[in-house]
Every structure is written in C-alpha cells, then in structure tokens.
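User: Sorry, folds how?
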Amino acid sequence: LQPERVRNLEASASYLFTKQLSVNVVGYVAGYNNAVGTVTVTLENGKTTQQFQPVGRRQIWGLQAEGSYR
C-alpha cells in the first residue's frame, strides 16, 4: 500500500448579532490520494471477509454551524 496523502482547505466566519447572540460557520474540503478503504473480499471457501485495500482518490466536504446565546 502507498501512503495516503491529503490536502485540506478550511474557512470559518463568525458573527456577533448582539452581546448575547453569536453564530460561527465552518466549511471544509479534503482531497485524498492513495486512499485506503475497507473492501469485502470473497475467500476461496466462499466466506467473505473485510480487508483494507487502495480505493484511489476521494474528496469529502462539509459545513458546520454553531449558535450561542449567553
């Protein structure tokens, strides 16, 4: 297996509406090369098992928000 490599980008913003009310938002994206994942494999006796194998490139992204009232 080759080592996984990842490139990440993350950005965040925060806004204070009042002294008591604030909101935080974070967005991110990550691109993986040589990603390793779990794959189901059938053995010679017909049984199945799980093993780690290279699964290629993957990209994940997400958004997270948080509000606070004090």
The mean pLDDT is 95. The two ends are 50 Å apart (CA to CA). Strands lie at 5-16, 21-42, 48-69.
